[in-house]
Amino acid sequence: MYDIDLILQNAKRNEEIARKLFDVEVCILSITNFQDLLERLLHLIQTKFQIPYVWLSLVKSRLFAPALDPSIQSPRLKHRLNLTTRENLVKVLDPEGTPVLANDALRRFYGLFPDQQAYAIGSIAVAPLTLDGHIIGTLNLADVDPQRFQPDMDTFFLSQLAVKVSICFSNVISREKLNYLATRDPLTGLPNRRELELRLQRECKRSSRYGTPLALVFVDCDDFKGINDQYGHDAGDAFLKHVAATLRNSLREEDMVARFAGDEFVLVLPNQHKEEARRVMERLAQTLASRPLAYEDHQIWGSLSFGIAVDRAGKKTPAALLREADEALYEHKKSKRDRNEASSWQTAVTEDREEPGCKTP
């Protein structure tokens, strides 16, 4: 009779676990955003199963970098997401790919802990997560109770959970990768014109709502055709990537730089007045002018022209801002050409006067 009661008790417990896992699965299958998936998944597991510590260790890989990068900045994931290497995961995972349960010699798992976290744990469960057949991370569960995750316990349900999570990761990452590619310039990796237009619409609405300034800058590479003609189109592509990286790395986190077309870029600078935007561009122009592109055996120097338009309190449409900045860019390039022509003329006159036999009036 005792054996039957024990069997029924275990069956009831397993049924309860299965129901909770089904609830988790139903919730996460409908999520289409990677950050939302991570936040929701960790919260559900922690609350459904009353586990004190639940976090993820993920390998930072190009396979899902576009989806992972925004998640790293999430305040909710700051202490629940650990970026590690595949080598660190292999050290603690079972070669067969089954979850690992441990309640002694726990120091070997410390490399999985999020930065600056020192969990006082008595036992831990580590389940591998995969993407396209490769280990990309682990789902980690820990408790202060040494009996919670014992090495001899069955890991069937945990394995099932890891499989479902891996499938959700694959679906969401594929979706976000498609969205990323649809909004990115393939050469420079910058947001493309479509993404620029959407962002500019949002920033104009924000400017109107809060009465804050918004600066937009049209940027053009001077004599880009000359670079193509002298060094070839591959060098021209490399130079555009060089300019894109310089612009991107020199701006604030809240700013945006997009490739508009050809050798033209557009900067969106929230909360910036015209003079502030001008200082930003002068600094960028100086940076580019002082850092040539090393291409093969050549040093390719470049310079920028720019035009600035400013919206105050959302009074201008995105199209009007772009048009105004484009016109300002044209005027800037024209003034530079005029100065260069005047300088060339003055130099020619000076050289002519210094020729032997010429008399200076």
TrEMBL record:
PANTHER family in the record: DIGUANYLATE CYCLASE DGCT-RELATED (PTHR46663), GGDEF DOMAIN-CONTAINING PROTEIN (PTHR46663:SF2)
Region: Disordered, residue numbers: 331-361
Gene3D superfamilies the record matches: 3.30.450.40, 3.30.70.270
Native organism: Desulfacinum hydrothermale DSM 13146
Residue ranges occupied by any GGDEF domain in the UniProt entry: 212-347
Pfam families, per the entry: DUF484, GGDEF
Protein name per UniProt: Diguanylate cyclase (GGDEF) domain-containing protein
Molecular functions per Gene Ontology: catalytic activity
